[in-house]
Amino acid sequence: MERNLTLITVFAALIVVLGLVPAIPLGFGVPITLQSLGVMLAGAVLGSWRGALAVLLVQGLVALGLPVLAGGRGGLGIFVGPTAGFLIGWLPAAFVTGFIVERIRALPVAVAAGIGSVLGGIGVLYALGIVGFWLFKNAGMGPEDTPMSLWTATLIMAPFIPGDLVKAVLAGMIARTIARYRPSALIARA
């Protein structure tokens, strides 16, 4: 139990530390950050439940107002802003990533972590992030405003996917390195 709590806390700290790497701000409110790499790694290394709990810990810190997100952001307002879908999506993204790594044991850990990161850390995350962005952009619109289509929101987010694919590959490589040099730390495969 104590080891689980320690690892959950360590991966929550990793997600926070990756947020210290300067974000690349874009004009429509969604910055490119490395924190999603931390989410992928939490699932790939800790597995579904522990990875999700690491993310939940970070989300709790955000809700308390601590500036733990990229750019020193925090507070409840983040949960209703343009990036809310992505922040909320971190939890199921880590869970799905970990679930896939736990289940695909026939493949090498790097491949399983890469697949899990693509499906969970990109697929699940973008599904929720795009819907959240779309809802935010269409909330409170007056009769003279033109609503944004879900397709437009998807097209706006599409340029982020190549960078996240690189993060998925990195997550696979890091998981493989952990499996090679510290196999007991790769709980998703324990």
From TrEMBL:
Where does this protein chiefly localize? membrane
Q: Which GO terms describe its cellular component?
A: plasma membrane
List the subcellular locations: Cell membrane
- Where are the bilayer-spanning segments? 76-100, 107-136, 148-170
> What Gene3D superfamilies does the entry give?
1.10.1760.20
Please name the InterPro entries in this protein's record: BioY
Q: Give the keywords, sorted.
A: Cell membrane, Membrane, Transmembrane, Transmembrane helix, Transport
Which residues belong to the signal peptide in this entry?
A: none
Q: Does the keyword Iron-sulfur apply?
A: no
**One Pfam family, short name please?**
BioY
GO MF, any single term: biotin transmembrane transporter activity
| Family from the record | Belongs to the BioY family.
Please report the name of this protein according to its UniProt entry: Biotin transporter
